[in-house]
Amino acid sequence: MKFTKLVSILIALTLVFAACSSDDAETTTAAPAATAAPAATDAPEATATPAVSACEGATLSFIGLAGEEGNTELAAWRDERNMTLEISDTADFAAMISAIQVGQEFDMVTIPYFQSQRMIDSGILQPIDTSRLTNWDDLFPGLRDNSGIRDSSGQVFGVPLVWGDGPFVYAPERVENLPVSYLELADPEWKDRFVIFDDPMGTFYMTALALGFSDAPLLTHEQLAAVAEQAKPIVANVAAFANGYQDATDRMVAGDVDLTWPGWEAQQNWGADKGVTLDFNFFEESAAGWWDGLAIPTSSENSDCVYEYLDAIISPELNADVANNLASGPSNSKAESLVSGISAMYDYTLVSTLTDRTEASFKSVSPPEEPPEGIASMQNWLDAWQEVKAG
Questions:
Q1: Which of 81, 88, 135 is nearest to 107 (CA)?
Q2: Which of 262, 274, 285 is nearest to 184 (CA)?
Q3: 181-199 pLDDT, tens digit each
Q4: What is the CA angle 292-295-298, rounded to 5?
Q5: What string of H, E and C letters represents the secondary structure of the chain?
Q6: How many CA atoms within 13 Å lie on the side-chain side of 314?
Q7: Which residue ranges form the domains of the chain, and what is each CATH number?
Q8: Which of 203, 278, 60 is nearest to 195 (CA)?
Q9: Is the model's pTM score more than 0.70?
């Protein structure tokens, strides 16, 4: 949905709408306001006034990367409030942005590092009032203070949820010789054996790095043309474009393909749930890390409930549960001691403070909508991608 050694470009294809739900009710008790004691000795004892949750009986709709909505981890939390969560899993952020722009209503959305500036610039997100999130100050500074969740004025538009690296995932029983470079996927031996997402950011960015264009995603028009030409045999070799990480996992589980990129360690867990062993590794073009967060679209009609939900999902225990299930690092610093397995193996110094290294590691890999003169724009990338797919 969401690089320590690789570019984790969480990009993809079509909107796949799948509704999930769970319900029930909860009230919380507010502390009584301080008042002067009444003179009468038999005065009644002051009682608290119950505060009704904004999520009581509510329905929230989520669109974004599978597993990042907290469907499993917040099931009991939702049940206590008799609320429903409707889920639309997708990794096709271009289509998602367009859907929101034309008025399709969603309450929460994944905001991944590689698309964050594009999403903010598109105007589809509400600014986040961080004072409404009691767990905000506990987020790792490298994520909480990162420029990727902010516009040019410093206004916050996303709440970091999980982070990590971005490997390729493969079926070890069917892959003997692991590819070293992303460009190797153009070799005949990989014909129809892997899937990627239908989006230029991943393939173009990795190809640009392989060609030595270190300023990517800021590419000149000539560099973009060279990247597109180099990418053609890779795209010609794909078995299919995956609709998301779950779809890619299902294809490997079924034996239809042997490798997927971009990958996510969480796919190991999903494969294991279906009795299939999957593994991961990294291309030599690896450079940094990734983070995924949650944001509030302008179409949301229940932002009060969304704030409650966001605060809950970044609380230490629930954030640790989400991270463990997604084999990712948690965003809440107090959750670090609560994670296990892969989630405990990441280099937490990357997010423990905000440094130049952190900013570089979580660099956005999408080209600007309005680039400097001589630099290819997002639309230029999209146009080139269509030409690459056409052969």
A1: 88
A2: 285
A3: 999 999 999 999 999 999 8
A4: 150
A5: CCCCCCCCCCCCCCCEECCCCCCCCCEEECCCCCCCCCCCCCCCCCCCCEEECCCCCCEEEEEECCCCCCCCCCHHHHHHCCCEEEEEECCCHHHHHHHHHCCCCCCEEEEECCCHHHHHHCCCECCCCHHHCCCHHHECHHHHCCHHHECCCCCECCEEEEEECCCEEECCCCCCCCCCCHHHHHCHHHCCCEEEECCHHHHHHHHHHHCCCCCCCCCEHHHHHHHHHHHHHHHHHCCEEECCHHHHHHHHHHCCCCEECCCCCHHHHHHHHCCCCCEEECCCCCCCCEEEEEECECCCCCHHHHHHHHHHHCCHHHHHHHHHHCCCEECEHHHHHHCCHHHHCCCCHHHHCCCHHHHHHCCCCCCCCCCCCCECCHHHHHHHHHHHHHC
A6: 30
A7: 16-28+51-165+289-361 (3.40.190.10), 168-287+367-390 (3.40.190.10)
A8: 203
A9: no
Q: How far apart are CA 83 and CA 376, in angstroms?
A: 45
| C-alpha span between 150 and 383 (Å, rounded) | 28
Contact 201, 9 (CB under 8 A): yes
Average pLDDT, the chain: 86
Residue 332 phi, psi dihedral angles, 5° rounding: -85, 125
What pLDDT is stored for residue 355 in this prediction?
75
